[in-house]
Amino acid sequence: MERVYAREVFGKKEAEVWLKGWVERKRELGKVAFIILRDRSGKVQCVAKEREEVIKKIKELDREDVVEVKGKVVENQKAPGGKEVVIEEIKKISKAFPLPIEIDEHIKTDLSKRLDYRFLDLRREKVRDIFLLKAKVLKFFREFLTEKGYIEVNTPKIVAEGTEGGAEIFPVLYYDRQAFLAQSPQFYKQMLQAGGFEKVFEIGYAYRAEKSHTVRHVSEILMLDVEESFITFEKHLGLLEDMIRFVIKRVLEEGKEEIERLGVKVEVPEKPFPRLHIKEIVKILGLEKADDLGTEGEKRLGEYVKEKAGHDFVFVIGYPFEVRPFYTMKDEQDEFFTQSFDLLFKGTEIVTGGQREHRYDVLVRQASEKGIKIENARFYFEAFKYGIPPHAGFGLGIDRFLMGLLNLKNIREVILFPRDAERLTP
């Protein structure tokens, strides 16, 4: 007999089944004993009636013991789901010690403590649902981009030079010299434009040594990076809109059960997403100058757009060059500003991108303006000498996207084992 999952029991009639899983609860009523058996698919009630040997074994079980059960599926309208398994044999295959944290859905436990025992926290159905949806979101991003002709690539995560410079970079010992963990695949996805790939994407980790203690910052970030040649700035925004709408629509189709259990409202956003130039935002928010908005500014702008336009997304266009990387293309009409953007989702930046500077001489000049030493990244600048097309790209924070989609308050909720300024284990 092959093992079946708990969920499959409800599609069977009068069948013999072999189950394996955890004892979530047990109950004894004289000559009848019940257990709720949980596995990766869900839960099913198992009952022993007037079988002294089986009942004795159930009495010896502790919560979260791992067991295997052989029995028969029967109808029982009082049982969860209308069916249960009458136990013929039960065997304990792994003993559970008393739990260090509570995993009952109805009892709240501090997030930090939950993360200390994340392997137990993941046994909670709603926590598992988050990661089932995350797997679907990754699948749908890949689905959209692959169907559009993008090539999935993998670039180095150990690099000789930081993509964006600054102090927010992790050094590592690379044999006999110093290297760094990649802040983004930016240099490499641009070099692939020089290589003629034209349309690429990557899902991978990026590393930022930010000593930020906020609910939306971590040190190891899961990113979706996209780069495309011969695309205009406006069409690039349209691509991003279409991708997000596609992913959310597919989540509603294939993740309906998880969304319902989590009790969140998910809607496909209308197109086009609102677009605001940083110059307009300065006036709207009463800022002193056009600059990076920061956490508070993004939150206020998200609230403003929701109130005025009823939209959860907003593009922030045209950041000043002084707050953008050297490879960002400047605005032809006013070189103080750039052809760049952020996309905010419910008041949190989830995407940064824009048109890249593809002209070698201009790129070198802009690097000099930023104090970037050409010799430290010569491999990158060389790619611009031999014919590279105009191109644009973006990086989307998958964890922030999911955090916004599910209305979660802390980004660590959507990361299996988060890494931040305090946490290096488990």
Report on this model:
The strands form 3 sheets. Strands 6-10-11-16-15-14-13-12 form an 8-stranded mixed sheet, sandwiched between helices. The protein has a 5-stranded mixed β-barrel with strand order 1-2-3-5-4. It is an alpha+beta fold. The radius of gyration is 27 Å and the shape is elongated. The protein has helices at residues 6-9, 52-59, 111-116, 118-121, 125-147, 186-194, 233-254, 256-262, 278-285, 294-309, 360-369, 378-382, 398-405, and strands at residues 16-29, 32-39, 42-49, 66-75, 83-94, 151-152, 158-159, 171-174, 177-181, 199-207, 220-229, 275-277, 313-317, 340-345, 348-355, 391-397. The protein has 13 helices and 16 strands.
Task: Explain the layout of strands and helices.
Blueprint: H1 6-9, E1 16-29, E2 32-39, E3 42-49, H2 52-59, E4 66-75, E5 83-94, H3 111-116, H4 118-121, H5 125-147, E6 151-152, E7 158-159, E8 171-174, E9 177-181, H6 186-194, E10 199-207, E11 220-229, H7 233-254, H8 256-262, E12 275-277, H9 278-285, H10 294-309, E13 313-317, E14 340-345, E15 348-355, H11 360-369, H12 378-382, E16 391-397, H13 398-405
Parallel strand pairs: 3-5, 6-10, 12-13
Antiparallel strand pairs: 1-2, 1-4, 2-3, 4-5, 7-9, 8-9, 10-11, 11-16, 13-14, 14-15, 15-16
Helix pairs in contact: 5-7, 5-8
Any idea what the radius of gyration is?
Answer: 27 Å
Main β-sheet, spatial strand arrangement: 6-10-11-16-15-14-13-12
User: Averaging pLDDT over every residue, what do you get?
Assistant: 96
Largest sheet: 8 strands, mixed
Percentage of β-strand residues = 25-35%
Structural class: alpha+beta
Based on DSSP secondary structure assignment, what is the total number of beta strands?
Answer: 16
- Outline: elongated
Order of helices and strands, N to C? HEEEHEEHHHEEEEHEEHHEHHEEEHHEH
How much helix is in the residues?
25-40%
* Count of DSSP-assigned helices: 13
Catalogue the unreliable spans.
none
- N-to-C terminal Cα separation, in Å? 37 Å
